[in-house]
């Protein structure tokens, strides 16, 4: 009987550990998540254009460090594919032509989010997060399809080329970006999670020496992810 009671006690403790509904200040987790980005720009002045969403991807390694029951800090390192698209319709030699300009940007981001965990019994918990990020643009490409026309530059022609990052007048984008993240996820007690995140860029991506009047360009990124943490 004693052996039976002891075995039952061990089983209950194991079940309780698996179906944990709180994270205490001594808990920590590590994980990976990846998914799809829908990115675009918000612009003002000469950069106030009809930007379309660019489909990209994201890959993130993160850690959850509890600072209290169901409240933790989540630093991460993330590879983010951003950018935007522009579509044009114009007339060349009396013929109507259409084209697309696509700007693909690869960035390494370092976000630090504060996360509130809302348990839902033995199944898992909702996670609401928010915090700042800093990003470093590392590579990118301007791509053109069809016959892209720019009414502001009559007779101009375009070809695919690498993006130049920096602060000079002839650079395409600033090399550093910062902003805020807002996220909502659901994590199963098995460790699998699904979530959505919105990245609100706050820095002006127009290179410093190329800015005039009210010219501003900022990132807007909606991401969806699937992940696992342990």
Walk me through the structure.
The chain is mainly beta and 230 residues long. Helix content is 7%, strand content 61%. It has one helix spanning 2-18, and strands at residues 28-44, 54-68, 71-92, 95-119, 124-146, 161-162, 176-188, 192-201, 216-229. An eight-stranded antiparallel β-barrel has the order 1-2-3-4-5-7-8-9. The longest helix has 17 residues, at 2-18. The radius of gyration is 23 Å and the shape is elongated. The two termini are 36 Å apart.
Helices and strands in order, then pairings?
Layout lengths: L1 H17 L9 E17 L9 E15 L2 E22 L2 E25 L4 E23 L14 E2 L13 E13 L3 E10 L14 E14 L1
Antiparallel strand pairs: 1-2, 1-9, 2-3, 3-4, 4-5, 5-6, 5-7, 7-8, 8-9
| Strand residue content | over 45%
User: Mean of residue pLDDT?
Assistant: 89
* Helix-strand pattern: HEEEEEEEEE
Cα radius of gyration in angstroms: 23 Å
The chain-level structural class is mainly beta
Describe the biggest sheet?
Answer: 8 strands, antiparallel, barrel
Question: What's the number of helices?
Answer: 1
Q: Which regions contain 5 or more consecutive residues with pLDDT less than 50?
A: 1-19
């Amino acid at each position: 009987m004693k052996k039976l009671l002891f075995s039952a006690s061990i089983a209950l403790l194991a079940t309780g550990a698996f179906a944990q509904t709180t994270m205490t200040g001594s808990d920590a987790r590590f994980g990976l998540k990846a998914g799809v980005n829908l990115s675009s720009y918000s612009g003002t002045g000469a950069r106030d254009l009809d930007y379309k969403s660019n489909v990209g991807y994201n890959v993130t390694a993160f850690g959850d460090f509890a600072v209290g029951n169901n409240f933790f800090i989540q630093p991460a390192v993330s590879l983010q594919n951003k950018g935007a698209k522009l579509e044009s319709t114009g007339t060349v030699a009396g013929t109507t032509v259409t084209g697309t300009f696509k700007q693909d940007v690869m960035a390494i981001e370092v976000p630090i989010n504060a996360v509130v965990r809302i348990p839902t019994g033995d199944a898992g918990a909702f996670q609401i997060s928010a915090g700042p990020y800093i990003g470093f643009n590392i590579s990118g490409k301007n791509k053109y399809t069809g016959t892209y026309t720019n009414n502001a530059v009559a007779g101009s022609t375009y070809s695919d080329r690498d993006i130049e990052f920096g602060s000079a007048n002839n650079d395409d984008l600033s090399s550093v970006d910062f902003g805020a993240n807002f996220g909502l996820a659901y994590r199963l007690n098995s460790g699998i999670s699904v979530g959505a995140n919105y990245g609100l860029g706050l820095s002006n991506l127009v290179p410093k020496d190329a800015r005039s009047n009210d010219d501003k360009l900022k990132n807007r990124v909606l991401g969806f992810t699937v992940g696992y943490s342990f």
